[in-house]
Amino acid sequence: MTRTDGRARHLDAIAEVRAGDTPTKVGYPIRVRRAEVLRTAAVGAGLVRVTLGGPGTAGFEAHAPDEHVKLLFPDPEDGALRLPTQDGLMLRWPRPSPTSREYTVRRYDPGSGELDIDVAVHGGGLGARWARTVRPGAHVHVAGPPGGLIVPHVYDRYLLAGDLTALPAIARWLEELPRAAAGWAFIEVAGPAQRIDLAAPPGVAVRWLHPVGDLADAVRGVDIPAGLRTYVWVAGEAGAIRPLRAWVRDDLRLPRTDYDITGYWKRGVADFDDDHDHDHDHDH
C-alpha cells in the first residue's frame, strides 16, 4: 500500500532509492527535540560519545550513514537559547541564528530511543568542550536530521576516506554495508590511540593513517580494477581533501551521482559550511 501521510512519504522515497541504482538525497520531516544526556564515554582517544534519550528522541529519523543533526547551545555572549519553531514538516529558524554545531548521527536505537553522537575533541571548540564536560541529566536541543543521502548497495567497490571528524560516519558506513561489500576505508588520525574497533565487511580493507598529512595521497594510490562500478565517499578538513575532488572527476571520471566529497571543517574557521561536490551540507 502506498503511504499518503506527509510524515511517511519519505519512507516510500527511501525504499524506492534503495531498490534502484542511483544515490539520491531524500528529505525527512525535520523537528527540534529536547533530549536528555544519558551518559558519555570515550571512544578511542579522539572521540567522546554522548548518548541522548528521553521522550524527546522518540520517533527520531535515521536512514543514512552520514546524516547529521545540529546541537543547539545558549548564545555565548548573552546566554539566550534561540530555538527554531515548527513550520509544518520543516523548521523556521530565528534571526540571529542559534548557536549550533553539526554532528553525524552515529547510532539511533528505535527500541530504546537512544541516540549516539560521537564528538571529535581534538580541538577546544564549543562542541568539544560541551562533550567533555556535560553530565547525565543535562538537556540539549537537537534539530534534524534534514535528510540523508541514500546510496543503493549496487556498487562493485566502495571507497571511504576521512579524518577524525569523519570517523563516526565511516564507522556507520562500514556497519551498514552488506557483508559481501568490497573496497577500501582510509582513516587519518593523530596516532594509534585514536583508532577504534570497526565492523567492516571482510572485503573492505581498512587502513589507518597517522600522523595527519597524507590522506589524499593514500587515497589516490588505490588501484581500482577497470570496469568496476565504484562509489567514493570522502569527508574531513576542506583543504586536505580538496585534491580528491579533481581526482574523482578527472582521473576516475565518476558520474556526479557516484561520489560525495564534503568539507566537514576548515582549519581556523568555526562552524564551517562547505560548498562541496554534492548537495549534502555538513560542518564541524
TrEMBL record:
One of its GO terms (molecular function) is oxidoreductase activity. Residues 30-152 form the FAD-binding FR-type domain. It comes from the Bacteria. This is Siderophore-interacting protein. The lineage of its organism: Bacteria, Bacillati, Actinomycetota, Actinomycetes, Micromonosporales.
